[in-house]
Amino acid sequence: MVHPAFFTQPFAGENLTNSNINGKVISNSNLTFNSTLIDFNSDTLIFAAAGDSLIVNGDFFREAVIIKESSKTAGFLNCSLSDNAYFFNMAIVGDNIDLSGVFQYMNTMDFYGNVTVSGTLQNLNAGHFTATINGGLTNNGTIQDNNYNCYLYISGDIYQNGTWTNNHTYLSGDADQNLWFTQP
């Protein structure tokens, strides 16, 4: 079953829970959530048509696969988190994924596609957490630990143009990986 979503204004309800986990939620617009606890119960959110931006201000988004359909637009997905928002047990899939604001993650965080850090990428200040990037990583912002260790596994090329101070980064690709650094 497909559940279409079209938002013209930010959503500020206290909770948004997907209780029909046998389908997909399709967004044909950009989505902004303000102080909302979002739980997709391991289901899928697909950005189609003109939808290419997810903004989460406060609280968290948990247990979802977020996909940007590249066949409909350029395949660019902008994820922005602020006000101590974080992702928990998530996967983000897109040709190009831009992380802006302060992008925090807890537990499993998987990216499938090329990731650009425009803001800050860090673990949530609650423990040692791992993010896996199945693709290349361009850092134009800041990658750092948040009190505990931020573990990164990267399978593609790395372009380092910002500040990178996390404790553990692993080159995990099966093929050759290229490193380009304009900053330490």
Kindly describe this structure.
By secondary structure, this protein is mainly β. Helix content is 0%, strand content 61%. It has no helices and 18 strands. It has an 18-stranded parallel beta sheet that branches.
Strand runs, count: 18
| Rough outline | globular
The largest pleated sheet is described as: 18 strands, parallel
User: What helical percentage do the residues reach?
Assistant: under 10%
Rg measurement, Å: 16 Å
Order of helices and strands: EEEEEEEEEEEEEEEEEE
Structural class label? mainly beta
Q: What fraction strand?
A: over 45%
**In DSSP terms, counting alpha (H) and pi (I) runs of 4 or more, how many helices?**
0
- Residue runs with pLDDT of under 50 for 5 or more positions: none
User: Span from first to last CA?
Assistant: 49 Å
Overall residue-averaged pLDDT value: 89
What is the fold's blueprint, element by element?
Layout lengths: L1 E4 L9 E3 L6 E4 L3 E4 L2 E11 L5 E5 L2 E9 L7 E7 L3 E32 L2 E4 L5 E6 L2 E3 L2 E3 L5 E5 L3 E3 L2 E2 L3 E4 L7 E3 L3
Parallel strand pairs: 1-3, 2-5, 3-5, 4-6, 5-7, 6-8, 7-9, 8-9, 9-10, 9-11, 9-12, 10-13, 11-14, 12-15, 13-16, 14-17, 15-18
Describe the structure in brief.
With 184 residues, this protein is mainly β. Helices cover 0% and strands 61% of the residues. It has strands at residues 2-5, 15-17, 24-27, 31-34, 37-47, 53-57, 60-68, 76-82, 86-117, 120-123, 129-134, 137-139, 142-144, 150-154, 158-160, 163-164, 168-171, 179-181.
